[in-house]
Design brief:
The chain has 22 helices and 16 strands. The chain is of the alpha/beta class and about 575 residues long. The strands form 2 sheets. An 8-stranded mixed sheet has the order 1-8-7-3-4-5-6-2. Strands 15-14-13-12-11-10-9-16 form an 8-stranded parallel sheet. It binds phosphoenolpyruvate and magnesium ion. The site of magnesium ion has 5 residues, from helix 18.
Length: about 575
């Protein structure tokens, strides 16, 4: 590896740590640090005759920063990349906010200080206001202020433009680039993948956070919860990301790098063996079928899913269709997207989940929940079906688009965050009205996600108002164990709490059998080989998981025997 970029700067000290892996794979590459944290600046006073010059510098830096965002925007649009646009638009709005210019220039004039210092003080003041907001989502917007305004600081200090998640990767030639950050958003994960970033490591994050589920879906090796990795790390450091053994190694010596290169080659050989399962059916050793389907957020994930021969889409997380929208698209626009997906599946079943907005998916939230509602605890407030039932008109549009799309192929509609059977009754009534209005006579099954403990406990009653069950183990674990799925500090509870979860799953499967309705699993446990035998023996109709996990589970299933 080329070590030129570190020459004379600091000694390469080896460090390692453990983390939570989002998916499999090993990457040996170069570090690119992307901090969302606080940027420091030079601070000095300015003679009064130079004050207006300082204000002019600020104005010029704002203009350059805004222009740079515009250029990035056009570049992305030309490349057909949409997901990070929302971030760029927000940055543009924050950078060009007239209040920011007004308040910063008045600090320069009154305190006789340089533009960088004045802007830093103003950024801190705005962030302090955000820190006092109760709502966690709004509170976290302070990071957006830091990201956006740092672009102005960069122009003032002459530092290179920040990559905003899609930075320039050319400087390391053909070497793999691993982004190391405090945290990444879903949009950043997608944009990094599209820009050929080889891997991501973050200090924050838990196993079932959405950024990680997306990384897994697109097959991008990632580690989260890598605490301490950001201490004394530099762009260009060499780094091993080992998502097979959940470890990272910074500045590994030559012999360790060589061992990892061999390990990587061995993995790719076993990957080849795995690829043989792409053309095989999903059967146990004694021929019992357990269908394996894909969880899909973005259409891009279908490329991988198609290569490995999936039995259908077991969970289409429709809320990701709306991730860049400021309001819900109309029925025609939704219908068009759903039909595209159904046609692409060419007769294979698609389970479309209704919008699961709220909790860790805040987009469209204020639109649906009302601008004055923040929710004391977003995971337990208005989320999923609760939120949809508050908006019967939007729900009708959403349902109508799915019901009409169902005329193009085998579709089932799935309700998220169902807590009581009364909620399902209300949903079914609204769906029935939509069908009458649209003149649709075809039966479209409507099922319940079993992901809130009350739904599992009352599974018999729930079966009476559901055409099928889909067990969402990510949320069922979170709510059963009272352990936030995004918090790495409580990640170990997910292991030790498995027995409680198993009891709820068995109860749900028994209720489904009694009512003769199908039951499946669509949470991340569907991809955990330790659970495959349990799911097979409980007669799950299918397991739905990130496409990148399907071949491994199909191979594992082929070694099991059915023991009901
Ligand atoms: C789940 O909760 O298990 C699930 C599949 O839904 P999501 O991860 O989208 O909340
Ligand atoms: Mg869920």
């Amino acid at each position: 590896m080329n070590d030129g970029c570190r020459a004379g700067r600091h000694p390469a000290i080896r460090r390692e740590g453990r983390a939570i892996a989002s998916s499999s794979g090993v990457v040996i590459g170069r570090v690119k640090v992307q901090m969302h944290g606080r940027q420091l600046v030079p601070e000095h006073t300015v003679n009064s005759h130079l004050i207006e010059q300082e204000v002019a510098r600020l104005v010029a830096a704002i203009e350059m920063a805004a222009e740079a965002v515009d250029i990035e925007r056009h570049h992305l649009i030309n490349a057909g990349v949409r997901d990070p646009l929302m971030i760029l638009d927000m940055h543009h709005m924050l950078i060009t906010d007239p209040e920011l210019l007004l308040k910063t220039s008045s600090r320069i004039r009154h305190d006789c200080i340089n533009a960088e210092w004045a802007l830093r003080l103003e950024m801190d003041a705005i962030q302090t206001v955000f820190e006092q907001i109760d709502d966690e989502y709004l509170r976290n917007r302070k990071h957006d202020i830091e990201h956006a305004c740092s672009r102005i600081l960069d122009h003032l200090t002459g530092a290179p433009e920040r990559p905003a998640g899609i930075g320039c990767l050319d400087e390391y030639g053909d070497e793999a680039v691993i982004y190391v950050s405090d945290d990444v958003s879903v949009s950043e994960v997608v944009s990094m993948w599209r820009h050929k970033v080889a891997g991501i490591i973050t200090e924050l994050g838990g196993a079932d956070a959405h950024n990680i589920i997306v990384a897994r879906g697109i097959g991008l090796p990632a580690l989260v919860g890598a605490s301490g990795i950001l201490n004394d790390i530099h762009d260009g450091d060499s780094l091993v990301l080992d998502a097979e053994q959940n470890v990272w190694i910074l500045n590994p010596p030559q012999n360790e790098q060589a061992a990892y290169t061999k390990f990587k080659a061995a993995i790719s050989i076993s990957q080849k063996d795995l690829e043989a399962f792409a053309v095989k059916p999903s059967l146990s050793a004694d021929g019992h079928e357990l269908k394996l389907m894909a969880n899909i957020e973005f259409p891009e994930e279908l490329e991988l899913a198609e290569q490995i021969g999936i039995d259908g889409i077991g969970l289409y997380r429709s809320e990701f269709l709306f991730i860049n929208e400021s309001s819900m698209p109309d029925e025609a626009c939704q219908y068009e997207q759903y039909v595209k997906l159904i046609h692409r599946m060419d007769g294979k079943p698609v389970t479309m989940r209704l919008l699961d907005v709220g909790g860790d998916r805040p987009w469209l939230y204020s639109d649906l929940a009302g601008h004055d509602y923040a929710g004391a605890n977003p995971a337990m407030g208005l989320r999923g079906l609760r939120l949809l039932l508050r908006n019967p008109e939007l729900l009708s549009i959403h349902l109508s688009a799915m019901l009409r799309a169902a005329e193009h192929g085998p579709v089932r509609i799935l309700a998220p965050m169902v807590t009581t059977s009364q909620e399902m009754e209300q949903l079914r009534d609204i769906a029935a009205q939509c069908k009458v209005r649209l003149g649709i006579t075809q039966a479209v099954p409507i099922g319940s996600m079993i992901e809130v403990p009350s739904a599992a406990i009352m599974a018999d009653a729930m079966a009476g108002v559901s055409d099928f069950f889909s067990i969402g183990t990510n949320d069922l674990l979170q709510y059963t164990l009272a352990a936030d799925r995004n918090d790495e500090e409580v990640a170990d509870l997910y292991q030790s709490g498995a027995a409680a979860l198993k009891q709820l799953i068995m109860q749900t499967a028994a209720a489904a059998k009694k009512a003769a309705i199908p039951v499946s699993v669509c949470g991340e446990l569907a991809a955990d080989p330790e659970w495959t035998a349990t799911f097979l023996n409980l007669d799950m109709e299918y397991l739905s998981m990130s496409a990148s996990s399907i071949l491994g589970i199909r191979r594992y299933l082929s070694r099991l025997t059915y023991q009901p």
